[in-house]
Amino acid sequence: MRSPFFNEFAVTNHPEKTIKDEYYLKNITSYYGENVFNDEAMRRYLPYRVYERLQKIIETGEPIDDATAEGVAHGMKEWARDNGVTYYTHWFQPLTGLTAEKHDSFLSFDSIGKPIERFSASNLKQGEPDASSFPSGGLRSTFEARGYTAWDTTSPAFIVENANGKTLCIPTIFLSYTGDVLDKKLPLIRSAQKLSEAAVNLLKLFNKDIKWVSTTVGPEQEYFLIDKFYANNRPDILITGRTLFGALPPKGQQMEDHYFGSIKPRVLAFMQEVEVELYKLGVPAKTRHNEVAPAQFEIAQIFENYNLANDHNQIVMETLRKVAEKHNFYLLLHEKPFAGVNGSGKHNNWSMVDSNGKNLLAPGYSSLEQLEFLTFLVSVLKGVYKHGDLLRASVASAGNDHRLGANEAPPAIMSVFLGNELTKILDHIENNREMLFTNKEKIDLGIPNFPLISKDSTDRNRTSPFAFSGNKFEFRAVGSSQSIARANMVINAIVADAIIDITEKIKQNLEKNNDIFEAVIDVLIDEIKLTKPIRFEGNNYSKEWHEEASKRGLPNLKNTPEALKVFVADKNKELLSKLGILREHELEALYTVHLETYVKTIEIEAETALGIAKTQILPSVVKYQNQLLDNLKLSKDLAFNVQTKYEYVEKYSKLVDELIIDIDSLEEELEKVEQIDDEQAKAEALAEKILNEKMAKLRKTVDTLETLTDSTIWPLPKYNEMLFIY
Question: What mean pLDDT, rounded, does the chain reach?
Fold first, then answer.
């Protein structure tokens, strides 16, 4: 029988939403970035001298002067007004991992009390949110509430449209009254600056006159969509972002027919509107497709400057949420919203480009360019080898723990995949002191009129957490709901540290022998040998690799409480403080924030599971149990053979009793754990005793009961409805 949650509305009454004609009929380039205070808008609205001065400030990183800020503020306000904006906000990224904003109007009054619209340099440059109301890890308390937002000149302002108006959003950093970091953006910017300095110094040894090196990022965002009707009837989804209960349907993803499949019209209409909104905001959305799991999808951005990529990914997540609501969908960004099917990640494609536009992770053609490429490649290997634990910690979260290590995502062990060709090149250097690059191969299909296929120098290893893929590294361990800022901050920092070390060694060799090839090769041989343990070309999912990784001494931080301790390890404190990215007490605060977030997340999930089990599941299964008992009694009264029915009712009744025991057991254990004073010990107990033991046992019982209970009685929408009816 159909569940009471079978949603005919989702199937029949949701015609695809149509995009406004003025955008649907336009070329993308005709409206791309129209809601961004980009170069075109600045040239139009800023006096020439103000524009030139601002560009120089952005390029050199020097502080902005008041006169320039006043000119920019006026021009930005005029542009915003011409686009129908009445309010502005400092848009920042606190340690929640989300974005935050406080809106102010342009309304002011002149000397005689006449209302005017004004936006000053001080309004643009600095804001003052309440720092004590955001996570701070003890850096701010209620009686020390002052915090500041400061204008990020390197990320353009943009306009967010809503049904009843528009808001000017000014990207900013967020810090405390005492100057402590309270956001994810400032450490990211500092790490990129440090990597730029280190890379420029290395390139000087190759006689390259480079002004700067920037990291570039192209994130791939995975997500689930379900009909909003189902979400509204699932308290676990509404409160925790994932299903705490739910039996697998007979057909999930095992037929492998959803990945890259034809996109359903209703979903495609949603995607198209998302893309229009993103293009207006200057977000370079490039790819859309069905993902592996049913109801799972992906949107990917084109590579761009790390800071813009970070801001744009936050805009992507928020736009997905807003447009989903309009299309009567519910967006799920949790890393594992449905047990038993693939979770969602955010593949973070990372590379480096110099001020001449050259990708430093592309081999090039001359011997010197190839030597330069290998030096940067080995620097990345060294960074991951020395600080793989910190890289793992950068993606630690309660949600990501469900995903890392399953057969859909890399394990918690950090390793690097290079591919056969690069492995051969490094081995050849180690053994023969010379480079051995080969031309790109072609694949001949053997069919007339079909083109030859260019064969990439590396295969794709989907099991590797940090894989080289042609001219970039793909960090596949980032969770779908996470900000990419923390992961990229760590990648930048560990690579910068490795570049600094390698540069010094090359300099020392050059003092003895002025031959750049010999000086670099000597260093590369040592580093290739040193970093061999981090290189792995096989199946990262396999049990054998876990055993081998242990022999190699690679850390395996299996859950968030284990991983977070890495933030306050002496070697990582030293790394981030000496590079000027985060001071020791700021790292301690960061550790505290993430630990508290984990504890609160698991406590909320446990309380939600108890609430659903006690007030929805238990009454429903008792009701069905009574129906079974009534039927059994009737069968006895009619003198039917009731042995089979008796066995079934006995089996079901035992499960109901087991459910009651599981509820009581979880409740009792949760009360004990909540009495633990030490936050690290509490987090560890929540992971092992509550999540992996008591909640897992309760779920197993509930999911078994779901498969045996009358669908018209079961109180929650089922997987086969949520994943397939949309």
Answer: 90
